[in-house]
Write a structure and sequence with these properties.
The structure is a homotrimer.
Chain A: H1 3-22, H2 24-35, H3 41-68, H4 78-99, H5 106-128, H6 149-167, H7 188-209, H8 216-248, H9 253-267, H10 278-299, H11 308-326, H12 332-360, H13 367-372, H14 374-379
Helix pairs in contact in A: 1-4, 1-7, 2-3, 2-4, 2-7, 3-4, 3-5, 4-5, 4-6, 5-12, 6-11, 6-12, 7-8, 7-9, 8-9, 8-10, 9-10, 9-11, 10-11, 11-12
Amino acid sequence: MDANTAFVIDTFFAIFAFVLIIFMVPGFAMLEAGLVRTKNVSSVLMMNTMIYAFASMAFLLIGYSIAFGAFGSDSMSKWAAFLFQMAFVGKVINIMSGGVSERVRILPLAIFAIIMSGFLYPLVVNVTWGADLLAGTILDLNMYDLAGSTVIHSTGGWALLAAILIIGARKGRYAKDGGVRVIPASNIPLVTLGAFLLWIGWFGFNGGSVGSISSVESANAVALTILNTNTAGLSGAIIVGIMMQLKYGKLDITMILNGALGGLVAITAGPDLYNIYQPILIGAIGGLLVVFAVPLFDKLKLDDPVGALSVHLVNGIWGTLAVGIFVESISVMDQLKGILVVAIFAFASSYIVLFIINKIIPLRPEKDVETEGLDVNECGLEAYPEFKRSF
Amino acid sequence: MDANTAFVIDTFFAIFAFVLIIFMVPGFAMLEAGLVRTKNVSSVLMMNTMIYAFASMAFLLIGYSIAFGAFGSDSMSKWAAFLFQMAFVGKVINIMSGGVSERVRILPLAIFAIIMSGFLYPLVVNVTWGADLLAGTILDLNMYDLAGSTVIHSTGGWALLAAILIIGARKGRYAKDGGVRVIPASNIPLVTLGAFLLWIGWFGFNGGSVGSISSVESANAVALTILNTNTAGLSGAIIVGIMMQLKYGKLDITMILNGALGGLVAITAGPDLYNIYQPILIGAIGGLLVVFAVPLFDKLKLDDPVGALSVHLVNGIWGTLAVGIFVESISVMDQLKGILVVAIFAFASSYIVLFIINKIIPLRPEKDVETEGLDVNECGLEAYPEFKRSF
Amino acid sequence: MDANTAFVIDTFFAIFAFVLIIFMVPGFAMLEAGLVRTKNVSSVLMMNTMIYAFASMAFLLIGYSIAFGAFGSDSMSKWAAFLFQMAFVGKVINIMSGGVSERVRILPLAIFAIIMSGFLYPLVVNVTWGADLLAGTILDLNMYDLAGSTVIHSTGGWALLAAILIIGARKGRYAKDGGVRVIPASNIPLVTLGAFLLWIGWFGFNGGSVGSISSVESANAVALTILNTNTAGLSGAIIVGIMMQLKYGKLDITMILNGALGGLVAITAGPDLYNIYQPILIGAIGGLLVVFAVPLFDKLKLDDPVGALSVHLVNGIWGTLAVGIFVESISVMDQLKGILVVAIFAFASSYIVLFIINKIIPLRPEKDVETEGLDVNECGLEAYPEFKRSF
């Protein structure tokens, strides 16, 4: 194939992948809107909307240059290359914002979204996928992370951990005697819709990260990547389903969907390197990690209404390690080094930024506001004003 | 175009078609969640999730080899060829599970999903689109069925008929005096969303079934296929709309959307062979068949909350026949033979498997569970816990 | 690249763009279903479904030939070229129907949809993008309007203005003392989902309007178009968010989403001609126009439950002018002339047709029906029958 044809096809493919990832915007929005209580639904939707807007704009104006040096690409339209990378940014903040739902204000979070997308996340990308400021130093990273188990998911997860430590748990979530009050998801169809939109977006996320489809080899790599991505999601759902059936005889759909998402995060570092059976194991472990991590975080009183720490942070780490474990040519130590360097930077920088923001504009709303629900105070409207509440 | 470029483009196109079909997973889930009562919504969503997971996994591990012999394709990435076929599988079970909603347990249905996707459906594919075990025998099939009016929709429909015969109608659906109690859909926006996601998925289903887009002829065939697919859906909706207006002066949107889906099923056997006007008639007949079949099945006390028998089974048959009727080069007798052989195999094998499963793990929940709703017992949660019910 | 390869790639790309635009069907449906009161939700969904069906069918049978002369295209499959154009049609009527929600009957609106899609809109297309009946006359238009700020959005907006003038405001919307009664949106997650499906559809709408992706130049133009489209949407959301925060300290998500949509409409006339920073300004002005136009139309007692006049009409005009203002090679006078000619034709012809329809079949339901809600009378069912209303 001549270079012009390859340029055209790879541009088209990057646009296709970009569009799939943008389905994750309503995906995250619906998932989180379904998981929180009705009194906080508009606020969560507002948060998702403003994150997409502010994070993408900050990445356009500042972040992309920090990450990659300048707009440019030889093998496809530089605008398509930008769009594909831009689609990633909001996801990092979504991971973080979802986990502090129901007790965070929009304004300070929007400010954090700008700083994270304009500076912090681009620095992570710079030293992993991008221009590489650390090249030649002792911190030079050789981690293999195709589509961001560490770069996206753990980075968002560490920022979330920082945010939870600063903001604290939802009012009434943990009793003084150590009990955990279950706060049920308010709208299961939205949760399911959101999870499947995310799943579909993942095909663009991971498939597009191969970077090209214009040769026989790269076309095979893209197709294998999408196949393996899907398999890990299936496997995560199945293992959690089996565990639920054996342990409780009841299938909690929110846990099973989180199991699928956990499998999807776990596969994301190396879906192009595995054979078609390894993702079954990697995804299954991903699902199990969600099941075990969710109660563990509750024990640690790290309140996370959507399970984002378990899905994204834990499985981001697991997925990055898995490439080292399952693929001979990849060094586990290189993977570990990448995980640690990103962890320290992402957690520390997020903590500091959130800490400072919190001093100026408190992240947490007043107690009354939290009790009444954020929608009325933050958005001035209810999500379902005509529906009578059952309590 | 050289062979490598064609390989790349056809791989990309198969991936595009695959992704569109996967939108049918939330499509079916939303459609069915909207059509059932709120007390069974989580259960229906769980069912759709587990079917996607188990059916796809069984097809990966067993079914695909039974259908096609082995992973492989000369004209595109073998992984893309697999993904496209895998996307079909869950649909067959979705058709079946939707029709027994509100009175079926998840565990035995998941077992059936594995057997159907791993063995029964692959055998149907084998003798129609695949390796062809029956070649040279008296049962050798020459049916034309581009995207599965028979192979997908009727097969799912026959399995559903078997399931309804074994499981029976929902409690209270049919009075002893022969009256039919109307059980209204609980969430019309979800029904509409689901129907349009299915409609969009159909473009990938039928368009992708052309198998290639990399020549001028095949590009024209793909575009014509998608155009004709859409036209039949439009026509199905329009004819049902006109009938409703004339007969009742009221437009029941669930019936009109089912009319569109009926038209879409009816066109699926031969959208590449028709001119651009024939789909208007084929889709209109498809819509009318839904309108007439729905009360007929109720008369036969075959309870089907989502109208799947009318949409998929009746129109699967009609669509397969239509190719023989409208296309000169296709023999009606060959179409009939295909319909019958698949009917007998799909119905009998599903019936036997469901019968055996039912003896070991009853398909139907206890009466109390059905009355209370499956959500609490099967999933341990309600779909809309904060919304007060109006009764 | 040889002509056959270009034919294949441009056909594939047109199909991709078509599919994205069809996501706007559920997009508009969900947006409007979320914005109206629960008693009118089924009716709004029915309207959207029938508009897609009737408008597309009328365009297939009549409209396309009026607009473009005949089915045909040299550079891609003529069926793909048709599908892409067909995807536009329903949007014009959607814009109009949304703005008269909650007090319009389906039957007369369906008749208008047929006339508008079969005749009126195709005439607008004819003199702008199509065969050009006015060529050589004094009315010959040289307006630049890549994807329809005027041709689609203003045309729909003028038809809506005509409809509002004929139908009037919703009962109780405007008090005699000049006060405006706020009627809150009933389902914010649906509004958000709908807005993002529209946003995603816009990538196909504007990107596909470049008409080709098969050369390096056109691939760059497509990618730039999609980037600029997105940026204007981001900017519209951000400016409205900032205004809301400063003015009220509360973020009304419906207004912010409409700000994004306003930015998207504004960019639509020339996204391929701007640099990557101009859309920030164009979109911001688009968002501001929505904020200022919404109360203005209420002052004029032009009742528009979804803000379509502000989003589509006002920004359609602004977007068309913007190309003349920001792009040196485009004449502002040519843009103004195009805006005016289309305005006069679209408004006058819609007004006349709606006026005549209204004499034969009243557009507005009886007062009791409006009070009770259209769902029961027009559709024979409620949208959420099991959910208890809070009043």
